[in-house]
Amino acid sequence: MLGVCYYPEHWPRDRWAEDARRMRECGLSYVRIGEFSWSRLEPEPGRFDFEWLDQAIATLHAEGLQVVLGTPTPTPPKWLVDRHPDILATDREGRLRKFGSRRHYSFSSRTYQAHTRRIVTVIAQRYGNHPAVAGWQTDNEYGCHDTTRSYGPEDLLAFREWLRAKYGSIEALNAAWGNVFWSMEYRTFEEIDLPNLTVTEANPAHWLDFYRFSSDQVAAYNKLQVEIIRQYSPGRFITHNFMGYTPDFDHFKVAEDLDVASWDSYPLGFTDMDVLPVSEEEKLRYARTGHPDIPAFHHDLYRGVKPRWWVMEQQPGPVNWAAHNPSPAPGMVRLWTWEALAHGAEVVSYFRWRQFPQAQEQKHAGLNRPDFQPDVGYWEAQQVARELEGLELPPTQQAPVALVFDYEADWVTRIQPQGREFTYRDLVWNFYQALRSLGLDVDFVKPGGSLEGYRLGVVPCSPILHEATIRALHNTQAQLVFGPRTGSKTESMGIPPNLPPGKLAEWLPIRVTRVESLRPGVNFALEWNGQRYTSSVWKEWVESDLAPVAKFDDGRGALWQHDNLHYLAFWPTVAFLRAYLGHLANRQGLQTFSLSEGLRLRRRGHLTFAFNYGPHEQQAPASPQARFVLGGRMVPPHGLSIWES
Amino acid sequence: MLGVCYYPEHWPRDRWAEDARRMRECGLSYVRIGEFSWSRLEPEPGRFDFEWLDQAIATLHAEGLQVVLGTPTPTPPKWLVDRHPDILATDREGRLRKFGSRRHYSFSSRTYQAHTRRIVTVIAQRYGNHPAVAGWQTDNEYGCHDTTRSYGPEDLLAFREWLRAKYGSIEALNAAWGNVFWSMEYRTFEEIDLPNLTVTEANPAHWLDFYRFSSDQVAAYNKLQVEIIRQYSPGRFITHNFMGYTPDFDHFKVAEDLDVASWDSYPLGFTDMDVLPVSEEEKLRYARTGHPDIPAFHHDLYRGVKPRWWVMEQQPGPVNWAAHNPSPAPGMVRLWTWEALAHGAEVVSYFRWRQFPQAQEQKHAGLNRPDFQPDVGYWEAQQVARELEGLELPPTQQAPVALVFDYEADWVTRIQPQGREFTYRDLVWNFYQALRSLGLDVDFVKPGGSLEGYRLGVVPCSPILHEATIRALHNTQAQLVFGPRTGSKTESMGIPPNLPPGKLAEWLPIRVTRVESLRPGVNFALEWNGQRYTSSVWKEWVESDLAPVAKFDDGRGALWQHDNLHYLAFWPTVAFLRAYLGHLANRQGLQTFSLSEGLRLRRRGHLTFAFNYGPHEQQAPASPQARFVLGGRMVPPHGLSIWES
Amino acid sequence: MLGVCYYPEHWPRDRWAEDARRMRECGLSYVRIGEFSWSRLEPEPGRFDFEWLDQAIATLHAEGLQVVLGTPTPTPPKWLVDRHPDILATDREGRLRKFGSRRHYSFSSRTYQAHTRRIVTVIAQRYGNHPAVAGWQTDNEYGCHDTTRSYGPEDLLAFREWLRAKYGSIEALNAAWGNVFWSMEYRTFEEIDLPNLTVTEANPAHWLDFYRFSSDQVAAYNKLQVEIIRQYSPGRFITHNFMGYTPDFDHFKVAEDLDVASWDSYPLGFTDMDVLPVSEEEKLRYARTGHPDIPAFHHDLYRGVKPRWWVMEQQPGPVNWAAHNPSPAPGMVRLWTWEALAHGAEVVSYFRWRQFPQAQEQKHAGLNRPDFQPDVGYWEAQQVARELEGLELPPTQQAPVALVFDYEADWVTRIQPQGREFTYRDLVWNFYQALRSLGLDVDFVKPGGSLEGYRLGVVPCSPILHEATIRALHNTQAQLVFGPRTGSKTESMGIPPNLPPGKLAEWLPIRVTRVESLRPGVNFALEWNGQRYTSSVWKEWVESDLAPVAKFDDGRGALWQHDNLHYLAFWPTVAFLRAYLGHLANRQGLQTFSLSEGLRLRRRGHLTFAFNYGPHEQQAPASPQARFVLGGRMVPPHGLSIWES
Ligand SMILES: [Zn+2]
Ligand SMILES: [Zn+2]
Ligand SMILES: [Zn+2]
């Protein structure tokens, strides 16, 4: 199903009815509204104006459109901020982050929590049982503009409470953090500061707890909204629109309180701005299509975050916020929409209905131009709507491959990279690209999530192995491949007493006695299966009674296996992973492909989809018996085919 | 005529007379003094000491030298700042900009305005009718060191008043800025903040008004000084010394209150520091000459700002403030001086008489060395003085080509570049270089300035077309070439209801329905006149009933013409502009040249000047009948020739 | 002798005895302890706990180990900072530098000085006569994390007092700084601010005095500690552990109050992080060995700082703080240790005994792993200890070559580089590398230090020639080579009245009339001894009655000589210096070598050492009669040989 984001408050009322009619004509079913409209809903302190929203919803309803109503908390009005400056967040440099754009609040502000309760209650009470309201969106894009972490007085107070609750006694905290080092010991929780603006880096355990706290504050703030909505709006789903790779908070945790995950997909901007790392050469090649693995990575991630998921904002044309904002190649809006559906999206909703000719996003395209004419995206959306009419999409099944995605791993390696090029993001991306270029479908699983039923599992890097994670790793027949630094940290961000991989060593008897981080250009090689692979970035020294599966050229063991567990004691490149994971997949009975650049596959039930991000026609890897239900054996450039197998 | 900047307060009194004598011997006529001497003029609050200045002026007068007296406002003394800390400016990061160098004041400080009135009145009263005082300079280099915009409490109060005066009602402001977006609506003018330190970018309309306000504050501050001087110093000219490309304020507006524009020309520093964009290869080639178009660009700009203009500070040797400070190639001080005269300068004044061996500029060369010996520049200045004796310079005539230079365009595209490489500066520079390499003389015209009498006009980019601009564009027979984004904005920084080019579409019936900004390396091509041109950066989609003059290789129209109006729907390179503007110029009966690198032409009345920035002798493109009045047909490296035609 | 840094407070008490025993077994003699333990020594205000330290020292003593006791002042505890926030430093941007890591104090805080007196007195009283305490270390790594200069209210007050003491009258200061420029004149010392956060750069004389003041504050703070220790701990040596190239304070001055200099040697981190400039190619080549001249440079520097010197912290494995942290090549820990001894170190002490598995440095290797097993460094240290048993090291003799190292020169050129690439560090490094690749031993001499007995002296750049310096330069028979800008400044950071080289011109009659700083790529050439040398960065114009020894290709003189004095009027490359200094050395009867990359020589008494940083065996340049006392004629990769000659 398709939807759109709409801002009735931006347009004259006499246009609303026509807008609604044309949405229906386009084939849209859902309309998200309201999430930035606080100044219109409460123009003066305590004076509410719902009349316009009543009419807007009624107008959409009249055309049979379903509404997703956003709470307006990403943008508190100026009068509220002026009355309560303690709402504002503080950046890492200690500067107040002022009113004048959006997300100008700290999750830890008690005042803001109170006013959030107030506004959400009023809105939920009014619209909770409206027949047009199908669901709710809390706030908008948590964490956008680096707003997860704030460094002000309210944050400090909340952080101290969080620590007190976690550790109970200051002695326990001192021991957990190792504060005897550099005389960092505290006598009371009141002595603890935030970890920013220290003379040199603060204790990494201090940072890690601050990251965890900040993530928890997002979840708590979201839960605060959810509980009110559930009370007044029974039977409606609740979602939040997440963003492209934003590891600052644990999305799994936030989503525990949601019914539906959703995310905002801007393939061109993400490719230009390195939301996931894209080489310069790929940035040029995919400037007008986006990198072929970027949307899929997020579709799979957010399907892992929640089985029911949407694309809440789908790029419909050039955007305004990247360093470069080209026009999508013709056909790409349709392709992106279909790809989301192939990966299991319930709804793909375009952002936005019409380009608004003022303010910050005035150059962000919509389905319609600011002169009220349909833009390119309108026609491509309509095409998808029509194509969908003839096609029933089967339910999404479990994939054969699991990727254990670990937000905490991002924090740990970001706080203490040890080598400049070691980032969790890049490592996960290598694993994902390798799997996708083999034509394999991938499920993202949270640490501790069940791995039953998978044939292959990859854990790119999980420094901290919590009890639940260990248990899940044990309860699977899958071949499990662990990346470097897995098990290298205790829960308190220390080195395990038995050295890495810590608790994992009970099942995979190896011991990492030393690690090296390497400057780009300081390379090493390893040989596996008669083939030589070069890498850099990271290398580990392992002691074990096992014989290594592969060796570095200095004779040390590079790859270790015991039963179904495999450990990579180095930074694996895509080339190596494609070979090794392909080999394991085949051994596990999975068919793999050697997909050419730009071609990607995905199954949904009995349907197989092929997407061609490249500029030339490519042949779909379909069996001769395949029955094509959309497109054909030759997949056109920037096009797709679907077949039954 | 020639002049020099002099600081008698830096030198022992017993040297003044000899200095004055040697100035005369060098052939200098004007001496600028006083602009940094507040601590000597008012050493204690309210206690003035004019005795030294009386004597200094008398000494210069005795040698027949004319004085340009600078008001000392760029450097208020410490005691004044300590008494009134509200004088200080605040930077964009919110930090106070402290005393200890210069320009340590905010234009919006009411205290500083009052003290400016006080000191300027006293000085103007004392020297206003002195026979040696030929003119005045207000302050020094407005905007230097990023001082146009300030972000403190005084600035905020003044900004609110400015907005109140402009919009009358807060509703009007909210509508103009589109503040319904992201709930940015204000209830009163007191709710408005400055646009810095917001969570993400502030409303571009907010920024644009803040830029306009800041520019207006410069003009108001200058006017405050001018009015006092006019009252007490009748018959003297008033100038201000502007800088190399400094778009932060509207120089046309400031100059409305002046008699003479002047500017400070440092060709080597400007080339090294990218005051105008210079490729790395050109930086090396022109390290000791400066880029051949940089001085001329500014001469033409400031002649457009005011018909009477000077070079107030001419580089006489190595300076101290660039990243690299080489010595000018022998002859360059002479060449630069002559080039300024060729472009119409009344006076070229060297900075400074003698290198001061202390403080910030101790490594800034003067005409004399700190050991009191003449430096290289002295001899080159003297040579020009002697050459000038035998030559009467005719008045400067209107050029055949007009370039509409638009400060607001710089602000609009800087606030909202939409593509990282799109800067107004670079675009204007492309047009200017193309025209100059064709051997064409160029006048800079302000938006709304008359275009009558020109054969060719270029508007590199004017997003906001004010009424007067439209009128001027209509009242000319010139071929008019518009660059991309012209007409793309309303006065309130929105998209025009009819889409770009907005009001221009009434005369040039096209409609820009989409724009693309492109990463370097994402290129496109167009074909015109049988030739293929490649470009990048920016590309527009145009709808029109017209047939395009040239097409992109994707078949869309790239270049549109109607009557005498031409529109470039892309980022034009110098190569393309040289071809297209040369073609139009020829069609309009103008002779063009294909000047080799480093050779540049300029006419003044019946005289034609050729300047050779290159290291090899070059032949002047003079007719066989040309009569050379300086130099000859072969222009030596770093030299010039002048002939009558 | 060998030592180690140990933190008993990090480990269970029941492990101390075994640790001590194994230290002895390893062959270690000294143990540094205590320097970060304030929170354990005074866990509550005024309540001291020495019991643990008593026992720790007793335990070490029992194994015959000698203790170097560190004062715990680099890490005041949180309770002290909370009681006296004026202890904290302020960074250049005006931000408080908070508690949470180390070095969180300003040298100018009167409160901190008082508490330093208090804690040092208590500790010195208690342990001053302990038989196991052989010496003391004051604080730890002064200046680390950019802590030499602080910009807070306490610093301002102290700076004003320092200025008052230096200048006596404000008129004298105004004259010395040239404050008439830009009306920067002060009426009282109370008007003076710190030079940060000015609108554009502050007066360089203002900066230079602030740099001098900040350096003096370090020396005064150190002296404060030293005087207390001397009072209560007679007969013990006092040291401080300096760092890799840290020019912010004058180490010669601080060391005047010490008995022993020591420094912390981390060859791999220093190579990766450009502590001295290393090309990208060398960074790769020497990633696991460190650049071969980096340890030696510092050994020679700190031997110049104090004849008795130690390496207090020797890298024993990968560290945690560089951008990349590779493992040292096998053998390098041994090589580095021997090289320090060859250069005259009394003791080489490893950092640290055991890797601590928590807090900031948890990935910093020690001699032992966190799982209590010996790490690679342990075995290499033990090997050195055994090798040392059979070998008596003779005293260190004066080297034939002196390098005058001038901290103030770093400040002057950093404050006013005049050309972006001109840094004192790079220039000194060029001289040092040239000398060392010729196989020459080098002594570092402070400005004004005696040059008697040297055959060759180099003064890479000493802009300010104090009286004592001039005197020392005059009292030597050495050939003296001066680099550019020597003598170019007065004591007040002005240009000398007679132009550069100022006072030096009395003996070397030249006059620098102009300088040029050049963009990389703007090259010049000079010819000397039939060979052409290319350079960039810096070039001077010299007037003299002398005939130049070498000329630039523009005909000006490049190299000037008079008697034993030589002046380089340009930025000298390593290639040129190797040729010219080698020529002078040979003329002075010194043997030079053309050492291959990675091979380095050093003599200590009758012993000659060869160190091979390269990956291949190399032949030692030993005479056929040489008697090898360690290793042999072929020096293995990452190994060394020692012979008697
Ligand atoms: Zn969004
Ligand atoms: Zn100037
Ligand atoms: Zn250290």
TrEMBL record, chains A, B, C:
The keyword Nucleotide-binding does not apply. GO terms for cellular component: beta-galactosidase complex. Keywords: Glycosidase, Hydrolase, Metal-binding, Zinc. The active site is at 141 (proton donor), 313 (nucleophile). It catalyses: Hydrolysis of terminal non-reducing beta-D-galactose residues in beta-D-galactosides. It is an enzyme of class 3 (hydrolase). Residues 598-644 form the Beta-galactosidase C-terminal domain. Substrate binds at residues 102, 140, 321. One of its GO terms (molecular function) is beta-galactosidase activity. Residues 5-389 form the Glycoside hydrolase family 42 N-terminal domain. Residues 399-590 form the Beta-galactosidase trimerisation domain. GO terms for biological process: galactose metabolic process. Its EC number is 3.2.1.23. It holds the Pfam family Glyco_hydro_42. InterPro entries: Beta_galactosidase_C, Beta_galactosidase_Trimer, Class_I_gatase-like, GH, Glyco_hydro_42, Glyco_hydro_42_N, Glyco_hydro_b. Belongs to the glycosyl hydrolase 42 family. This is Beta-galactosidase. It comes from Allomeiothermus silvanus (strain ATCC 700542 / DSM 9946 / NBRC 106475 / NCIMB 13440 / VI-R2).
